[in-house]
Amino acid sequence: MNTFRKLILVTAALLAAVTLSAKPRVRIIATGGTIAGVSATSASSAYTAGQVGIQTLIDAVPQMLYLADVSGEQLVNIGSQDMNDEVWLQLAKRINVLLNEEGYDAVVVTHGTDTMEETAYFLNLTVKSEKPVILVGSMRPSTAISADGPANLYNAVAAAASPECVGLGVLCCMNNQLLDAKSVIKTHTIDCDTFEGGKVGCIGYVYNGEAHILQRVTNKHTVNSEFDITRLDRLPRVGIVYGYANCSPLPMQAFVDAHFDGIVLAGVGDGNFYKDVFDVAVAAQQRGIQIVRSSRCPTGPTCLNSEVDDARYHFVAALDLNPQKARILLMLALTKTHDWQEIQQYFMEY
Ligand code: GLU
Prior knowledge:
By secondary structure, the protein is of the alpha/beta class. 31% of the residues lie in helices and 20% in strands. It is built from ten helices and 16 strands. It has an eight-stranded mixed β-sheet. The protein has a four-stranded parallel β-sheet with strand order 13-14-15-16, with helices on both faces. Strands 2-3 form a two-stranded antiparallel ribbon. α5 (149-160) links the parallel β6 (133-136) and β7 (170-174). α3 (85-100) crosses α4 (116-126) and α4 (116-126) runs parallel beside α9 (323-333). The chain is globular. Bound molecules: glutamic acid. Glutamic acid (GLU) binds at residues 33-34, 49, 79-81, 112-114, 137, 139. Glutamic acid (GLU) binds next to loops.
C-alpha cells in the first residue's frame, strides 16, 4: 500500500472515530429565574431571581460536558413573573433557528418556575422541530444550601441529549421528573417537588444521566402544530377572569371595554360563571370577543355543553387546559380564525 493510500485510510478512520464519538450539540438559552438567583446568605430565603449569567450556570455543572457539547446564550435575565408575549415570540423564533438552521440537536431553556408551564405550552405550539426542547429551573437560588439548580440542569441536558426525548414535544425537567408541556402545573409555592402532570402524571424520569420515558402524549404539538409565529411581532390580547362566590363582573367588563380579543374564565367547578359575569360574557361574545370557559379546579376537564350551553352562546370549553394555558391556545387560535367552532376544534386537538 503506498503512503498516499495509507494516509487516506488513516484520515478516514480518524474522521469515523470523531463522528462516532461526537456528542449531541445542546444549546442552552438562559432567561433568568431562581436557577440564576442569588440570595444574601446561603441560608436566606430572601433572594433576587435572574442575577447570574449563562456561563456561570454552565461552569457550575462541568459534569454535563460528558453528556453533550454544551454552549449557551442569554436571551433575557428576568423573574418569570415578568415573562411576556414579546419574549415568547423571540424565544420560539430563536429555537427554530437553532434547531432548523444552525444544526443544534436540542435546546434547553433555563426559566423561572412561576410561568414555566406557560412558556412550555407556548413553545409546544410554536417550535417546528421534533428535536428535544427542555425547560428547566430551580426552586432554590444558586447560592442556597442544597441548591437544586445544578442537578436539574444536569438532568435537563441529559434529557436533551437523549434520543428518548425526540418527538415528545416540549418538556419540563424538574426534580428528576420529565413533564409534558400540556399537563405540567406548578403545584406548590416553595417546595422543590412542585411540578406535577395532574392526572396524567409525569411522562418520565432522569436518573444517572439517562432519560427514561414512561408514556407518550397524544395531543398535537411542534411539527404537527398549525400555528406559525415566524412573521408575528405581537399576539392577540387575551385576559383571564377568576371566578368565585358573589363574583364581581367588573374585571370581565374592563377587558371588554379595553377591546381585548378574547377572555378566558377561570370558572368555578366545570367552568361555571357567576350570574352577573355570565351576562357580561354573553354580551362580549356577541361583540366578537371570544369567551373560553376553563376552571379554577387544579385537575379535571371543563366539559363542552355540560352545565353551560356553549352551542347556544358560542362559548368555547377549554377541556383539559387550565386557564393560563387556555389563554395561550386562544391567543394563537385568534391568529388564524375568529370562528368559535374552529377554535373549539383547536381545543380538542391541542
Ligand atoms: N418568581 C421567580 C421566577 O419565576 C422565581 C421563582 C422560580 O424561578 O422558582 O422566575
